[in-house]
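Quick one, tokens below:
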């Protein structure tokens, strides 16, 4: 329990930030999951559209400080690579 007014304020601020961070992380997870599900179903066109939304969510999370910018960039890159591979015809 906080003993001073400034510590109480810090506690309130931390609680607000935690709620925001959880919400942003949940949106990112959902967007990434949607891309992966569409890839698993073989819907490359749908996956491309979902990749755009996931990319926006990841960039937004990075700009808010929820994710590190390099971590967000890495996730976008890996998703984009997976979508690109799904769009290619299978080599025989």
């Amino acid at each position: 329990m906080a003993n001073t007014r400034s510590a109480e304020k810090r506690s309130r601020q931390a609680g607000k930030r935690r709620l925001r961070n959880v919400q942003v992380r949940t949106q990112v997870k959902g967007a990434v999951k949607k891309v992966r599900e569409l890839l698993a179903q073989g819907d490359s066109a749908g996956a491309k559209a979902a990749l755009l939304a996931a990319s926006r969510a990841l960039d937004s999370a990075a700009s808010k400080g929820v994710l590190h910018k390099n971590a967000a960039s890495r996730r976008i890159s890996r998703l984009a690579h997976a979508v690109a591979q799904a769009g290619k015809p299978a080599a025989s």
